[in-house]
Amino acid sequence: QVQLVESGGGLVQAGGSLRLSCAASGRTVSTFSMAWFRQVPGKEREFVAATRSSGGDAYLDAVRGRFAISRDNAKMTVHLQMNSLKPEDTAVYYCAATFRRIITSQMRMAGEYDYWGQGTQVTVSS
User: Fold this and answer.
1) CA angle 44-67-81, nearest 5°?
2) How far out from the chain centre does Cα 6 lie?
3) pLDDT tens for residues 30-56?
């Protein structure tokens, strides 16, 4: 079973930065997509950012220009650099992964991902 482990969450003031990391273990593959989603109580999971081993990144419009996703194909690890954080970014952030090849439009869909991490809390104070 593949395990995804997130780290890097915490409490910051508005305008601050955090760097989230997600490492996959249990399997090494050449083709994968990894993504970040976030969720607040009472709301559906929201796509944040995604990247594919084959190339191509996607972002939620609300974080474009503030967040940057990066990957290490060999280590099956992704990072999410979050700058200029806003209170509305407060949520539990989840790492997700699939080893299937997906097209660009599918990268934003939670249902396309097969593995999920436990989540890491990000809290941005005003």
Assistant:
1) 105
2) 9
3) 889 999 999 999 999 999 999 998 888
